[in-house]
Amino acid sequence: MSCKKCGYNLPNNAKFCEKCGAPQIPYDGSRIVSKNEASKKPESETSKRKKYFLIGAGIIILVIIITVVFYYVILGAGFFDRLNTNIPPSPSSTNSIFTERTVTVYFFYGEECPHCHNVMPFIQNISKKYPNVDFLILETWHNETNQALSTSLHQKLGMQSAGVPEVIVGNVSLVGDRDIPVRLESVILDELKRTDN
Question: Which of 152, 124, 145, 133 shows the shortest CA–CA distance to 81?
């Protein structure tokens, strides 16, 4: 046997070259395996099942996401309509949740209206501050029932709608993303005082 590096003649069982010190690997006629190949273990049946399960679960989740996006975007279903399922009380309603509360704030908005989206966080925060007040968040651009309610309230007030965002509390209508945050709380307080008498 000779050294692979310097060619010096070595005994057949030498592990290192006596001249240059290079390690010697005796050849036994089998295939030489690299370190990467030697460290790889065959994939077990359990890990294969786990892999296929994760792929299947990922596909199902992807289908669900695509379905939801299709429903809301392509079919034009109002996103806020699905989140805010508040149904305004009918005048003859005897439901205890509506008879206990005396003040109702109607917030009318349009789904694609940027001014409405500016006001939405304010409405959500103030509704938490006044739990004894009914806050109805109603999309009017795509929901005919909410449009009809808006028209009915405007007729009762003797005015025409000035657009969205709009809040109606009692006999007061506030319109716009500047007027609503500035005046709504005082209007609610005035209406609460009025209904307590």
Answer: 145
Cα 27–chain centre separation: 62
| Cα radius of gyration rounded to whole Å, the chain | 37
**Number of independent structural domains in the chain:** 2
The two tokens of residue 91 are 């005048």
192 and 116 in a common domain: yes
Residue in the block written with tokens 């057949």: 12
Answering whether pTM is above 0.70, one says no
Kindly provide the residue ranges of all beta strands, DSSP E only, lying in the chain, ordered along the sequence: 103-109, 133-139, 166-169, 172-175
120-161 pLDDT, tens digit per residue, is: 999 999 999 998 899 999 999 999 999 999 999 999 989 888
Q: Residue 189: helix, strand or coil by DSSP?
A: helix
Same domain, 67 and 86: no
56 and 135 both lie in a single domain: no
